[in-house]
Amino acid sequence: MLNPEWVPGPQFKIRPPVRGLGALERPRLEDALSVSTDSHRLTLVTAPAGYGKTTFLGDWVRNCALPCAWLSLDRFDTQPARLFHGVVGAIQSAAGRLPLPGNDALLALDQGLTHDRAASYDLLLGALEHLTEPIVLVIDDVHLAGPELANGIVGVLAASAPPSLRLVLSGRGHAPIQLERFRYGEGLGELRAPELAFTREEVGHYAFSFGQGAAFDAGSLWAVTAGWPVAVHARLVSLAQSRHVPVTTPNAFPTQIPLADYVAEEILDQLEPSLAEFILRATTSDWLGRRLAVELSGRPQGGVLLEECLRNGLFIAEHDYRGGESMYQWQSLFAAQCRRILQRRDPLLAERLHRVAARYYQDADVVECVAQALQGRAPREAVISLGAHWLEFVLGNDARTLEQLCEDLPAPWSEDPEILMIRAVCRVLAGDAAAASELTERALSRTFVLDDSRRRRLDGYRALFEPLPDGGRLGLHATKAEDGRSTIDTPDDGRSADCSTGMYLLAQAEFRLHRRGDLATALLAAARGTRKPEKLEAIEVCAQADLALAFAAAGDLASADEYATQVLGRADALGWTSKERIAPAWLARGIACYWRDDLTAARTCLTKAQRAGGELFPAGPLTATYRVLVDCASGDPARLADSFAALESFHGRGLFAVSSDALHSIAVATVTEAQGDPAAALAIVQPLAPGGHGALADALLAELLRRGGDIDGAQHCAESMTDRRSNAYIDVCLSLTEALVAHRTGDTAAAHERLEHAVHRAEPASILRPFAERRDELADLLVQHAVWGTAYESFIAALMARDAQGGSGLRTQSYWSLTEREREVLAYMRSIMTAAEIADALYISVNTVKTHERSIYRKLGAGSRRDALKTAAKRGIV
To answer: Pick the residue with more confidence: 246 or 361?
Structure first.
């Protein structure tokens, strides 16, 4: 017999709570839970406090088509008898409201637990087996039952309940029951914090319920709170209560959301004191690893506590390895509230922990080090980190951020000579020589505050960036290598790392400002040459990527392809997760493909360059310009609209100091012309003074003026570039423009001389785009030129055949042995792209690509990709 001595529990524990006024209905979550309970016997709903678990589950229970039992747990339910009594009472209450066939045995159960727990559990399981219709048991706040939950009735039901019982367990952390057999066996339904967080649309709906209008920026509030419902609610309440805070845009600072008391009471105070103290210390930094966790907590088990936070879903996520250890990221809003709590409780400890974090990040992350040092009132730590690592920092970040870090330092540290010199370098890279000179003078006037070590380092900066007295810009000596290219003599004084990095940065400045391309190329080559294992590997690869782009910009398409391919291969071998460093290599290949008139490959490479580089990619405007040129050439309106929008997003942002405006105007005119309005295109470019812009801008400008009928302007523009025609494709463009101008004016000899010169420069590098762009106007002139006489008969013949057939490449007899698609695949095989990447670029399956590759090997008599490419090159196919 069961023990009848039990006390009836409060009825509110077995009823879903009353819905709060103004609570947001969330049908997407209710639908997800319905699908989960239909498919799984056990479903977990786990998230930290403030994610609306109870409200959402209560709504679901009230709306569910199945009979639902509800049980809310409290801290006394750690007692097995009390928990058993609550579970049986909840199930009987639901079964009694909706009588089901076979529920007699369930209703007849005594809710008391005998001394023989196993017998009581068996009786409940047996009664559930008599049910002919399913019933859902929702148990809320299971974390309050403690670690013994698995050994009580809940653990038994999860493991052995019949299919007629669907179990939904809701709590804040990891449920202490065995779950792995569910995950890898019959299946387990789970709804976690990412699913329970508000979406952007839900934030907008919730804000509307608080009286906010259509102008309210729901996206900003969603981004700041990461969709944490209680944080969204707190911010909207504070906005509604305050008349001094604008209601159109929420404050972007997480610390302004009044949540510190909620976090203290509802989260930290519910944890074990040791874990709560660890969280207050470890949230000093949003990002941390095990070693920093140990240093901040002052306890050797800091790493274990970090894993416990992750296991229990306490606003933390694990990310990829950095420096040999996993990195963990706190949810920024939660971490900000924890810092506020610690600041109120122990401000001296909070400052000390910020200094600990600053020292930890001093050699690993300049941005984080500076932020932590300033919060810890230790600006000297920030100055030391900036001075020691600013060169490496620029390699992976933009100079504008570095300059802002220097400007954020408080006085007198903002006037430190080393900081002033770093700011001067940033101004040099931005092309602001006047500001750089003024900052340098201020730095030199304060060198008396430096010790010997820092003064030597300051002198090193000056040596790297000192202008030449003869009008040159660099204190480095250029010589000619055996292949005719410029090289830079580098000193061997023990500072090769700094010298290599400095030359790399200076070359970037030269190239980005559209100055002397040959000097930029020589500098980049020198930066590659002064390498050392490990320490300079990143510098070398970065320099090689920019070197590929410099070669492409200088017209050496073969070298651009060579270096770009090497960079992409090395980056893949290094496993770099950040693609910013290799974006110049993709751009270099895109430029080469464009001038060879391989528009499909050009678009693919340029798109990869733009995606890899992101908004801060310094050559972003150049990438966007070439994308516009590609899409104008291919005549795809949808793609052209997309590339033109990307170009407009870069305009006026100042990433190029010299010819950005001219390139932008020319690109806009090219788009206008492609849309069928040549008169408007001419009106756009005529205000540009012919000549005086970058080589690419002037070459494109000359042709636009010619096509628009401004012959004098086109001739003037071409004449202004007499000493700037070393670039092969620029020279081809200008020569063809001059040939067509001469042909129009009746100067036949000049027309053929210019055309022959264009062919002479184009043939070695397969520069085809300028001919394709002028295809209709060149058709008759090419025929006449073949009769007139040329040293490049095969090239002229191939051009005429190509134009007549509308093909996309020069054809020879062996070329026809491949189908059109096989030629496309072969073109991509020249890169390091995998079969999957080629398939993605061509919008075909991987198996189709492999079929084409096998056909190419068979037709060319090759056994590998390398052999196929060698044979194709010999036959003139590629």
So the answer is: 361
Q: Decide whether 11-196 matches 467-605+629-635 in CATH topology.
A: no
Phi and psi for 165 in degrees, rounded to 5? -105, 120
Torsion angle in degrees (nearest 10) through CA of 221, 225, 227, 228:
-140
Tokens 């996993």 belong to 326
What pTM was estimated for this model as a whole? 0.57
Among the residue ranges 359-373, 536-550, 619-633, the one predicted with the least confidence is 536-550
Q: Do 697 and 666 meet the contact criterion of CB atoms below 8 Å apart?
A: yes
Architecture of domain 816-874: Orthogonal Bundle (1.10)
Interatomic CA distance for residues 768 and 633, integer angstroms: 12
Please say whether the beta carbons of 475 and 468 come within 8 A: yes
* CA–CA distance, 182 with 174 (Å, rounded to integer): 15
Max Cα-Cα span within the chain: 119
CA distances from 61 to 58, 100, 158, 513 (A): 5, 18, 19, 65
Q: From the CB of residue 792, how many other CB atoms can be counted at a distance below 10 Å?
A: 16
Within its chain, how far is the Cα of 789 from the centroid? 55
CA 113 to chain centre: 57
132's CB contacts (< 8 A; 6+ apart) are 100, 101, 102, 164
* Mean pLDDT across the chain: 79
CATH number, domain 11-196? 3.40.50.300
Q: CA angle, corner 182, sides to 179 and 183, nearest 5?
A: 90
Are the C-beta atoms of residues 96 and 107 closer than 8 Å to each other? Answer: yes
Handedness of CA 497, 499, 505, 511 (dihedral sign): negative
Q: What is the pLDDT of residue 814?
A: 40
What's the rounded Cα separation, in Å, for the pair 805 and 821? 16
Identify the H or E element spanning 225. Answer: helix 218-225
23, 51, 529 from 217: Cα distances, Å: 20, 21, 52
Q: Per the structure block, which two tokens stand in for 245?
A: 């805070």
Q: How far is Cα 344 from Cα 332, in angstroms, rounded to an integer?
A: 19
467-605+629-635 CATH fold: 1.25.40
> How many Cβ atoms are within 10 Å of 323's Cβ, its own excluded?
8
Q: Domain locations in the chain?
A: 11-196, 200-253, 467-605+629-635, 816-874
In the block, tokens 């920092």 appear at 393
Per-residue model confidence as pLDDT tens digits over 281-323: 999 999 898 899 999 999 888 889 998 898 888 899 887 655 5
pLDDT the model gives residue 371: 93
Q: What is the 3-state secondary structure (H, E, C) of 419-462?
A: HHHHHHHHHHHHCCHHHHHHHHHHHHCCHHHCCHHHHHHHHHHH
